[in-house]
């Protein structure tokens, strides 16, 4: 949250926002270069942060807010947090465009928040428990187009080239009096990727409930996630401390990961009480996407009384979870595993 204003300024400096020319834009009906989604209050926070710092962005942005109900908020949250921007005192910025207010469904979830059409990528949101309203995101990619089994097609007498293309497009062809249908040569359609990214939380079980709802409604074929990004702020021995601060420990995350049949788990948001894993440690974990590891460049004398992230990794690996585990680091690129079935 605190990094978002600075991140937007960094984008501005690098010129990576697919800029529009502000002077030629009508604030009432022009679309934004960057669309930001988050819980109620984000619009006001970002407006004030950019205004007070006199950040003069050269591109436009819009904040689309998930409207919170009482069940989405921790106790007494409304008593001390003003979420609504007062346009009489804090008018929209010149670079700000109108965002949508997105209301939850009766079951408490926010579905298809980006308003994509059917058979396109869907982003759903759910409320997760923290000391302030926090949100998790579920990204569901559309099913992949079925690929052609070239070997089978050749065995059926289909020559390489245009006719194979016709079969791939779903058209039936006739060769030497023999009919070849697409289903004869196309491999089974693979589902799209499913990726979940959780915000700060000590309980993200709503993600499991959302997956169950989608499965019951036949919107997904199984309760399986390809990648889950989830915090593990403290190790299991500090569970009570983590809970009081609204954060998670490995055992809690691993239980959820098993229930969701997660294939790749990315742990993040580690407390500064832990040092990076020493590169000289024979147990150092290397992720499978570039042989990168979370190494420490501190001397051993600096770390005598400071545990490393190895303790969190070991606790995560000691469970029944059978997927890959990655300890996240700044600017780490994570490759989503391919869907094979």
TrEMBL record:
Coiled-coil ranges (or none): none
Source organism, top-level taxon: Eukaryota
One Gene Ontology cellular component: nucleus
Gene3D superfamilies, alphabetized: Ribonuclease Z/Hydroxyacylglutathione hydrolase-like
One of the record's GO molecular function terms: 3'-tRNA processing endoribonuclease activity
PANTHER family: ZINC PHOSPHODIESTERASE ELAC PROTEIN 1
Descriptive protein name: MRP-S23 domain-containing protein
Taxonomy of the source species: Eukaryota, Metazoa, Spiralia, Lophotrochozoa, Platyhelminthes
């Amino acid at each position: 949250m605190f990094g978002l204003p600075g991140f937007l300024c960094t984008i501005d400096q690098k010129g990576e926002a697919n800029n529009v020319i502000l002077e030629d834009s009508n604030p009432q009906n022009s679309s934004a270069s960057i669309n930001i989604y988050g819980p109620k209050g984000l619009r006001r926070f970002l407006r004030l942060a950019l205004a007070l710092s006199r950040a003069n962005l050269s591109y436009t942005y819009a904040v689309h807010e998930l409207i919170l109900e009482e069940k989405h908020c921790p106790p007494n949250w409304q008593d001390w947090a003003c979420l609504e921007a007062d346009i009489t005192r804090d008018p929209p910025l010149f670079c700000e465009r109108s965002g949508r207010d997105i209301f939850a469904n009766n079951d408490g979830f926010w579905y298809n928040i980006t308003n994509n059409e059917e058979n396109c990528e869907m982003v759903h949101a759910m409320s997760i428990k923290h000391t302030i309203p926090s949100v998790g995101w579920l990204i569901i990619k559309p099913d992949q187009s079925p690929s052609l089994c070239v070997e089978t097609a050749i065995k059926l007498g289909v020559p390489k080239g245009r006719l194979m293309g016709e079969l791939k497009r779903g058209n039936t062809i006739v060769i030497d009096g023999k009919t070849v249908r697409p289903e004869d040569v196309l491999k089974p359609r693979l589902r799209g990727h499913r990726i979940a990214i959780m915000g700060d939380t000590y309980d993200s079980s709503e993600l499991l409930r959302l997956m169950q709802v989608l499965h019951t409604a036949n919107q997904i074929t199984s309760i399986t996630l390809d990648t889950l990004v989830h915090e593990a702020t403290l190790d299991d021995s500090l569970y009570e401390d983590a809970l009081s601060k609204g954060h998670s420990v490995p055992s809690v995350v691993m239980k959820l990961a098993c229930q969701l049949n997660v294939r790749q788990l990315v742990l993040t948001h580690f407390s500064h009480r832990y040092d990076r894993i020493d590169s000289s440690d024979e147990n150092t974990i290397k992720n499978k996407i570039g042989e990168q590891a979370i190494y420490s460049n501190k001397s051993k004398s600096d770390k005598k009384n400071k545990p490393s992230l190895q303790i969190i990794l070991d606790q995560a690996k000691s469970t029944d979870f059978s997927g890959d585990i990655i300890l996240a680091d700044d600017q780490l690129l994570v490759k989503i595993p391919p869907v094979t079935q």
